[in-house]
């Protein structure tokens, strides 16, 4: 039973680690954050469950960030609904009661963290769009004066706004390698689909950046994943969450500095401060106050963007 397992409960003190067995369902994939399940009666669909696991430097930590999976699911659902009139997506529902053959005793445990979605043939390119220089993009600019295929003006700083939103695709692999546009086109498979994905990603980005700006938040960059269902290009996976995007408080942007983002930066900073961890498993212990502060950041961006918190999630 879901409720009798210690790892199935999620509260402000204990997160959902996932990896549980759901009767009748096959747990067929464990990502860094999500567990994927399928059911023999529904071969064209799958259940995607966002756990509270947290990875940093590609190592999954022992601790969880309680409610993180709910926040990621809630923000994705917010954007999917905002743009549902024109944004094609694979997801069917986030309502546990609407998932066929999901045992009733599991509905409460998984509500808020599950997504029932059509299975897409994944396009193995990460569609990364950047409106500002940051992270690996800034490092590349410093080294080469360019960003992927795009030449840039001299004199840009960390967190400078780019002249336009730029597409900097990477491979969808264990380590995401930067690729050129022709390489992306080849991985996607056709010019026309690549152009369609590019145009759709830009449209989503601009629409979301505008909404975020109205809330005094900058959408600095984001990563989309796309797939194909019955020949149609659709958005899959998470959508403009703090895991897949850099959101910055507008008034905290200081040219030349990396602004504070609404994600796991607090955990990363803590890990960087450790001198005796080599960034390989096993991960070190993360102190409770680091967990609590990180959780607050996720709740903050959720409230700012969507105006509320997921049901059952409280400070
Ligand atoms: N509708 C969909 N059809 C097919 N695959 C999907 C769909 N939605 C999401 N996925 C895939 O499901 C997985 C979700 O798991 P998770 O986000 O934890 O993975 P991850 O740790 O990011 O690892 P990786 O994405 O590299 O496999 C991703 O591999 C994602 O590409
Ligand atoms: Mg992922």
Could you say what the CATH architecture of the largest domain is? 2-Layer Sandwich
CATH-level-4 superfamily name of the largest domain: ATP-grasp fold, B domain
How is the biggest beta sheet arranged? 7 strands, antiparallel
Structural class: alpha+beta
Please indicate the count of domains.
2
Q: Any idea of the CATH topology of the largest domain?
A: D-amino Acid Aminotransferase, Chain A, domain 1
Runs with pLDDT <50, length 5+?
A: 1-11
Distance between the amino and carboxyl termini: 28 Å
SS field, number of helical segments: 7
Total strand segments? 16
- Order of helical and strand elements: EEEEEHEHEEEHEEEEHHEEEHH
What top-tier CATH class of the largest domain fits best?
A: Alpha Beta
Helix content: 25-40%
Are any ligands bound, and if so which? adenosine-5'-triphosphate, magnesium ion
Radius of gyration: 19 Å
Our estimate of the beta-strand percent is 25-35%
Quick one: overall form?
Answer: globular
What number is the mean pLDDT? 94
